[in-house]
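Give me structure tokens for this 234-residue protein.
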Amino acid sequence: MGLRSRGWLAIILTLFSSCRIDENEAPLLVFSIIYDFSEGEQGWIHGFADYPVGPDSILYDLRYAYTEQPDEEKKSLMLSGKNLNGDLFMYLKKQITGLKPNTEYTITFNIEVASDLNSEVIAESGSSESVYLKAGASHLEPKTVVASGYYIMNIDKGNQSTAGADMTTLGEVIIPLNSTGYAIINRSNTMANSRYKAQSDADGELWLIMGTDSGFPGTTRLYYTKVNVYFSGA
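Here you go.
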């Protein structure tokens, strides 16, 4: 690549990464949004699903907090739960407005999260499954609803490692074996075969959702530190 080509590429990437959505301007087709949770919760809403209704639900010890991550002074979004039935889903969601109405967007997620899970901990639990990070978007607000005595999602998130119509799987939240305590990991769907698409509604709105689908039968506590979301409209 020549110097001139590299210069143009740098300019394009700078414009793309610095673009922010503004509801007072015309709807955007290509833009990015960066959520740095050290600067605040920024309107993200938490929730839990895939656990039973009733008094035993308290045993799952479901927790959310806007708090400092371990060994760090920066704040983050903490989600925690004890996966007693081997199927717990913990999530965060946020509505995006100002999109072009009824338009298909290709969405790329880059999620930064602090985890303390490694492969040895998973293996010692006796589970053949892990903790999988997922992300997606829907014109329908993702919600926890009750069905057949269980709290479940009203969207298709898939199950554990399997993606659903409304969420794609980004990978496991596993840190290297030589790491101690919590370590930052990044997960993304930047590869061509993992591109995710969703269509805005008639009002130019979409709901983003990210979370963990767990087959690990222990307690999972994660700290979401930063999320970059890139939109490219058709």
